[in-house]
């Protein structure tokens, strides 16, 4: 049981999800490289944890075994599907 | 004779690489710079079990061999033998975080592909266990095909075994494995890394991670910013209050040594050079050492605990409005104490353009050296009256000067990041590492290295400038009945300066003070003091400097002088550190020019507005 496919920035905080696709073309070269370095890939588990206090940006997400911060503009390129609780 | 074998220590950021490097080399380290870039080169010496020496180089943390920052470029170039100022390492020590194998093994696989003799340090196994992770190091060794040693760098666990394995590798005649060369297909590497990690994990019990719980509080939308403000407040209190005693002691010590040397020497130009030039000039800069060290103590602790990245996370959105990223927050905040450590702290910004913008606006933050100037002028010209319940006018003006500094820094970065320094990434992507207790030895080594960098600069470029300024003020020497300040080269330069600054309300005395104030802003106070004490007659002797000023300057001039110092880049140390951090004269010259233009415009606008209100 998985939820609908949505962009990462719209996933509710704390929801466990899996990456279904990444729109690499929507990202700059260095941004794409960094995301790959952070281990962003299809099938990897992901969970948004915190939002920046001012303007609800950036976003802290757990991806695999790492926690990383990215801005929502980049998070939008990552498509995820929530996992059944 | 062969040079001592070189071992490169490489790994992801936050793998505990530097702690392991410190544990392996102790205090036997040297910090330098790679030629042509502002990346620090840390080398240290160690001894192999057979007694032969080995040199270790701590490469900047990297995520892969496809660089996205100057640091990562150096790491790649050293490992490929292409970095100027470094020989090709004979062996490689890869440091991986045991609790983040999925990610760190990707870089490890890439590094192993280079074909150098390699040892892997499976670091922080204790923290992995705390997080409920049990690993099979032997299995990992089989999968990777290179020796794997479990280590806990901060407790020196596994250090001897690492040296043993490295010794074994270096003894054998160097054999390159059939290196397929490093792969750059990140996704394929990542998948392989995940598979190996999965096989090496024996057991995983889910536990509430301490980091997760701490982040719940420290990144809380309400509590987070409040805690950050409290930490910053504490930092400032410390910088300004803890530094008073050691700074006074340093000043007194420099003064008494200077006097002692002065008394020991016959009255000559040499004595004047040593006492008035070297001791007075370098002394004025050395006084900042305690503040700089306290500031760096905070920065190092914030960084090593993992809180620094959280501060950047909290501030990122606000900083983005000024065209900067959250990473610029701490360097700019540090610049309130002194722009020198602030600019040095910009090394944590991985985007080159963001970093440059931050460096260029850092001098606009009101540093502590401006305070003596501000307090003197405000004390002399602004009446100590209250303009509201509990609001003194003097304090209000001082606050206004701070706000002007901040506002102009934000405006300047907005303009700069869209014009001369445009093309920054405009993103913020950072790993939030696990929280860790800082280790005293690592902080001490970091502080020692900062202190040496600062002192070396005081010893070279600042010393040289001080001597030049002294020479300008001392030659040619005044004959009987002449004033030294009139006949010296500096006096003539002051005439020239006066012609330029007269339209913005500056008198000849101010022009005289502006030149020595290039060494450091607070020197302006001493310089004005000297000018007035030389010219004073005996009955004026009892007057304080403040009283003398009120008699000679109009209020409009005083206000213009304050406005000038909000912007004027009058600090040799800042210019020197900018040259060092940007690798050339181009950016420091640009910085000095735009800030002088701003200073001139601001002082002029202030002066003529004040005159229009009848304060001239």
Structure explained in plain terms:
The complex is a heterodimer of chains A (85) and B (616). Chain A is globular. With 85 residues, chain A is of the alpha+beta class. Chain A has two helices and six strands. With 616 residues, chain B is α/β, with parallel strands linked by helices. Among the domains of chain B are: 6-207, Rossmann fold, CATH 3.40.50.300; 475-612, no CATH class. Chain B contains 27 helices and twelve strands. Chain B has a seven-stranded mixed β-sheet with strand order 2-3-4-1-5-6-8, with helices on both faces. Chain B has a two-stranded antiparallel ribbon with strand order 7-9. Chain B has a two-stranded antiparallel sheet with strand order 10-11. The longest helix of chain B has 35 residues, at 440-474.
Q: Tell me the strand order in the biggest sheet of chain B.
A: 2-3-4-1-5-6-8
Q: What is the CATH T-level topology of one domain in chain B?
A: Rossmann fold
So how many helices of chain B?
27
Shape of chain A: globular
Evaluate the radius of gyration of chain A: 12 Å
CATH superfamily caption of chain A: Ferrous iron transport protein A (FeoA)
Number of helices of chain A: 2
CATH-derived architecture of one domain in chain B:
3-Layer(aba) Sandwich
Task: Detail the topology: elements first, then pairings.
The complex is a heterodimer of chains A (85) and B (616).
Chain A: E1 2-7, E2 17-22, H1 29-37, E3 45-51, E4 59-63, E5 66-70, H2 72-75, E6 78-83
Antiparallel strand pairs in A: 1-6, 2-3, 2-6, 3-4, 4-5
Chain B: E1 6-11, H1 17-25, E2 29-33, E3 40-47, E4 53-58, H2 70-79, E5 91-97, H3 101-112, E6 118-123, H4 125-130, E7 133-135, H5 137-144, E8 148-151, H6 159-171, H7 186-200, E9 201-204, H8 210-218, H9 223-242, H10 244-264, H11 269-286, H12 289-305, H13 307-320, H14 329-334, H15 339-344, H16 352-361, H17 370-381, E10 386-388, E11 391-392, H18 393-416, E12 430-431, H19 440-474, H20 484-487, H21 489-501, H22 508-514, H23 523-535, H24 545-552, H25 555-567, H26 572-582, H27 586-612
Helix pairs in contact in B: 3-7, 5-7, 9-12, 10-11, 11-19, 12-19, 16-18, 17-24, 17-25, 18-25, 19-26, 21-22, 22-23, 25-27, 26-27
């Amino acid at each position: 049981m998985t939820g609908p496919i949505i962009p990462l920035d719209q996933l509710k905080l704390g929801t466990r999800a899996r990456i279904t696709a990444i729109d690499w073309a929507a990202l700059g070269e260095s941004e794409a490289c960094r995301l790959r370095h952070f281990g962003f890939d299809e099938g990897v588990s992901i969970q948004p944890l915190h939002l920046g206090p001012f303007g609800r940006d950036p976003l802290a997400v757990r991806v695999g075994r790492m926690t990383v911060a990215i801005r929502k503009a980049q998070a939008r390129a990552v498509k995820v599907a929530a996992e059944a609780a | 004779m062969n040079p001592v074998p070189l071992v490169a220590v490489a790994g992801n950021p936050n793998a505990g690489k530097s702690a392991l490097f410190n544990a392996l080399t102790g205090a036997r380290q040297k910090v330098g710079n790679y030629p042509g870039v502002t990346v620090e080169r840390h080398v240290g010496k160690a001894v192999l079990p057979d007694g032969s020496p080995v040199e270790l180089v701590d490469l900047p943390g990297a995520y892969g061999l496809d660089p996205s920052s100057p640091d990562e470029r150096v790491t790649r170039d050293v490992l490929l033998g292409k970095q100027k100022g470094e020989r090709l390492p004979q062996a490689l020590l890869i440091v991986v975080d045991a609790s983040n194998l999925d990610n760190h093994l990707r870089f490890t696989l890439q590094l192993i592909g280079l074909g150098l003799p390699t040892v892997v340090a499976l670091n922080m196994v204790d923290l992995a266990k705390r997080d409920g992770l049990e690993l099979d190091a032997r299995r990992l060794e089989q999968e990777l095909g290179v020796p794997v040693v479990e280590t806990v760098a901060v407790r020196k666990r596994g250090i001897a075994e690492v040296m043993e394995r490295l010794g074994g590798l270096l003894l054998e005649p160097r054999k390159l494995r059939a290196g397929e060369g490093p792969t750059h297909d990140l996704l394929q590497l990542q998948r392989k890394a995940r598979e190996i990690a999965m096989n090496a994990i024996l057991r995983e019990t889910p536990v509430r991670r301490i980091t997760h719980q701490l982040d719940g509080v420290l990144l809380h939308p309400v509590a987070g910013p409040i805690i950050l403000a409290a930490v910053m407040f504490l930092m400032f209190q410390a910088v300004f209050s803890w530094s008073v005693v050691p700074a006074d002691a340093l000043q007194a010590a420099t003064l008494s040594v200077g006097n002692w040397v002065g008394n020991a020497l016959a009255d000559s130009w040499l004595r004047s050079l040593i006492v008035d030039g070297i001791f007075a000039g370098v002394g004025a800069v050395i006084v900042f050492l305690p503040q700089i060290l306290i500031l760096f103590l905070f920065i190092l602790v914030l960084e090593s605990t993992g809180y620094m990245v959280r501060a950047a996370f909290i501030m990122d959105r606000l900083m983005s409005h000024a065209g900067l990223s959250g990473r610029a927050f701490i360097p700019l905040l540090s610049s309130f104490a002194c722009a020198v450590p602030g600019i040095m702290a910009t090394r944590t910004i991985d985007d080159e353009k963001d970093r440059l913008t931050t460096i260029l606006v850092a001098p606009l933050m009101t540093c502590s050296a401006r305070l003596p100037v501000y307090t003197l002028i405000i004390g002399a010209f602004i009446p100590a009256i209250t303009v509201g319940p509990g609001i003194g006018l003097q304090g209000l003006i001082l606050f206004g000067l701070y706000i002007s500094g901040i506002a102009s820094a934000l405006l300047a970065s907005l303009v700069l990041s869209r014009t001369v320094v445009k093309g920054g990434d405009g993103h913020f992507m950072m790993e939030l590492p696990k929280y860790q207790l800082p280790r005293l030895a690592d902080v001490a080594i970091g502080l020692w290295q900062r202190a040496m960098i600062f002192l070396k600069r005081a010893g070279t470029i600042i010393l040289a400038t001080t001597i030049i300024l002294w020479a300008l003020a001392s030659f040619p020497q005044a004959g009987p009945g002449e004033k030294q300040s009139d006949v010296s080269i500096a006096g003539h330069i002051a005439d020239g300066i006066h012609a330029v600054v007269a339209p913005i309300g500056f008198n000849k005395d101010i022009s005289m003070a502006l030149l020595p104030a290039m060494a450091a802003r607070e020197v302006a106070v001493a310089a004005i003091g000297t000018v007035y004490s030389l010219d004073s007659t005996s009955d004026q002797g009892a007057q304080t400097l403040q009283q003398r000023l009120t008699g000679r300057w109009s209020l409009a001039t005083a206000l213009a002088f304050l406005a000038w110092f909000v912007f004027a880049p009058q600090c040799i140390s800042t210019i020197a550190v900018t040259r060092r951090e940007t690798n050339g004269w181009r950016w420091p010259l640009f910085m000095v020019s735009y800030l002088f233009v701003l200073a001139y415009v601001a002082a002029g606008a202030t002066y003529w507005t004040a005159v229009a209100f009848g304060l001239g």
